[in-house]
Please model this.
Amino acid sequence: MAQRVLVTGGAGYIGSHACKALARAGYVPVAFDNLSTGWAEAVKFGPLVRGDLLDRAAIDRAMAEHRPVAVMHFAALSLVGVSMQDPGLYWRVNVTGALNLIEAACAAGIGSFVFSSTCATYGDQDGVLLTEETPQHPINAYGGSKRAIEDMLRDFGAARGLNHVIFRYFNVAGADPEGDLGEQHRPETHLIPLMLDAVAGRRPALTVFGDDYPTRDGTCIRDYVHVTDLVQAHVLGLRRLLDGGGSRAFNLGSGQGFSVREVIEASRAVTNREVPVIRGPRRAGDAVSLVSASTRAVQELGWTPEHSSLRRMIADAWAWAQKPDYRQ
Ligand code: UDP
Model:
């Protein structure tokens, strides 16, 4: 019988793509999601359990019913800007939710846990390439909450034998190349979908958050990675754990940084349309530059981020944004 994997946030952008990758790799993904920001329609590759991570009994029930061999934990609040306005929300939902899930996994005898962390745990590091050994000094509540969960995993690994793979994502972008899934947050706050909405005329313009940063063109630099490549790394990380590999943290990025203006330029090249742009102030909590040195995942997991050119990511996101069932 196929092994089951509990995928929290399985109705969300990255979680739904992970469910597809897991199904393709021969697992049954069981999506556990409260549908606060996810979409039931995005759960296409296994069952959906509607539940909340703040409800420990609901997690225990899902574990008892589905008997997963491993957990992939995506469900979280993930907006840097909101985390600065409402830090209590971020600490409560992300950290308490993860604690409930980790304790439930240990109680159910699960020894393999894949966690979606973030490059926001590194904070602002003066433009250096970030390796997994770079000290983590988050500058926003989102990054702080994720770093706390990393610490929690380390402690449960030591005390309860919970082996874990931590993936620190850089900027996840693009959509399923076969058109089954894509990015649709509510509200949308991410650069590429907002930019493409402006290109498509669904929004008046894209606001560039600050053009006075100490970078080559004054706008922030980020490292974009294709969602399909990102979730493939999760399948590799899961296999590592199920094969008895120990706990490890991996950065997931393309290793190349692009400024906001360079992303806008690439969009022009892909869509052949102008991006209406407004200059705005800096957004609180934004680091100047976040770029990964992603060699560890390549070397140790055999990861190949083959879809992660900027143009490919924008092209796949653009194809998704033009689908008739795309929701704003
Ligand atoms: N950004 C922007 N305008 C927007 C949204 C984002 O200029 O409407 C910038 C943002 O300041 C950051 C980059 O685009 O430098 C990526 O932001 P996003 O919210 O997509 O991801 P984050 O880096 O916050 O995880």
The chain has two domains: 4-173+224-252, 191-222+255-321. The two ends are 39 Å apart (CA to CA). The mean pLDDT is 96. Residues 80, 171, 189-191, 194, 206-209, 220, 222, 260, 283, 286 surround uridine-5'-diphosphate (CB under 6 Å).
